[in-house]
Design a protein that fits this description.
The chain has about 350 residues and is of the alpha+beta class. Helices cover about 35% and strands about 25% of the residues. A hairpin with a 4-residue loop joins strand 6 and strand 7. Helix 6 runs parallel beside helix 11 and helix 10 packs across helix 12.
Length: about 350
């Protein structure tokens, strides 16, 4: 895929996680060679969407996630010659050293000589494994500051959940010189799907999450009413993507479905409850990571993303055991379809 030198530089230094092109030949999970006049790099596509025009694209995705643009207008002008608007979210495994200098107070906490880069997963952050000065295993995430404030969201939610669930201890967070720095405990264990008989443990854990007292929970961005409002407001933007999946529907029937099938339960959700974000140690203790999307919502928010993760990791044979442990005899497929449409807005 041809890209400009500016785009490739932005991707390498973590300042760009989406690209816009008129090349429609790639799909999720594809590895693609990005070619510029100066060099080439290999990236993995993690999300693909089509838009009718640049206005629709930048109304749904902040222009700041496409590089060093000062305004939406500047970004639109940069991409104005494209005939089709295809958007790919990409993951680039940068093997280079730290792209930002560490704050002095952070350096006092960590053993810098122990730092190694972790390229597993689809995080838009640079992720490092290291040790604290006292030998404790830790994770350091560094992200270029964008309007999404991903790491700040994760930090605030992780702090709120301490003492309520088995989550990492938070050691440090700071925003400095357009970067976010987040240091937390590294929990022991392997991703759930790598553990034998993981499904009943995951079911009990999700039931525990959904039983948390939400009386004073400040995180409501993914509540059902808000999700429905966003979907209605963005229906014209996401319509092409939805119709590719549900060709028998139209704009009117989609809106009617969303309004008539809105889930009515209210619980605390992880927000990205996928098998790699659920760790199980040698004592069958379950812990949770990547907490940036924790919010009040419907239980089907977690059930939807978890089932996708079971499918992605070829574990659907274990899904029934998960449901039994969670306490559901069967899945409400209308609620799952509702979440599938909502997912096209959230991505």
């Amino acid at each position: 895929m041809k890209v400009k030198n500016k785009e490739l530089t932005n991707i390498k230094n973590g300042r760009q996680v989406y690209i816009i092109t008129d090349d429609d030949s790639f799909n999720n999970k594809d590895f693609v060679l990005l070619e510029s006049k100066s060099e080439n790099i290999k990236v993995e596509i993690t999300i693909k969407y089509k838009y009718n025009n640049l206005d629709d694209c930048f109304n749904l995705i902040s222009f700041e996630l496409f590089g060093n643009f000062k305004s939406k207008e500047e970004a639109k002008d940069y991409y104005k010659d494209l005939k089709n608007i295809i958007v790919y979210r990409i993951k680039y495994d940068n093997k280079e050293p730290l792209s930002a200098e560490l704050p002095p107070e952070l350096l006092k906490l960590i053993d810098l000589s122990s730092l190694t880069k972790n390229t597993i997963g689809h995080s838009s952050s640079e992720v490092y494994e290291l040790k604290l000065k006292d030998g404790t295993n830790a994770i350091l995430k560094i992200q270029y500051l964008t309007s999404r404030n991903d790491l700040k969201d994760e930090y605030e939610r992780n702090k709120w959940l301490e003492g309520k669930l088995n989550v990492p201890k938070v050691y440090y967070f700071k925003e400095l010189d357009n970067y976010q720095y987040y240091l937390r405990e590294k929990k022991a264990g392997l991703s759930a799907h790598k553990i034998e008989n993981f499904a009943p443990l995951v079911g009990k854990n999700l039931k525990q999450i959904h039983s948390i007292d939400i009386t004073n929970c400040p995180f409501t961005n993914n509540n059902v009413d808000n999700l429905l409002k966003i979907a209605i407001d963005k229906i014209d933007i996401i319509l092409p993507t939805i119709l590719e999946i549900y060709p028998d529907m139209n704009k009117k029937s989609i809106l009617e479905f969303l309004k008539n099938n809105k889930p009515t339960d209210t619980v605390l959700v992880h927000g990205d409850y996928s098998l790699p974000n659920i760790l199980i140690d040698d004592n069958n203790e379950v812990s949770l990571i990547d907490l940036g999307d924790v919010s009040i919502s419907t239980k089907y928010f977690d059930l939807y993303y978890l089932r996708k993760s079971f499918i992605r990791n070829n574990k659907m044979d274990y899904f029934k055991a998960f449901l039994e442990s969670y306490g559901l005899s069967e899945i409400d497929e209308k609620a799952m379809k509702w979440m599938d449409i909502i997912d096209k807005v959230l991505f």
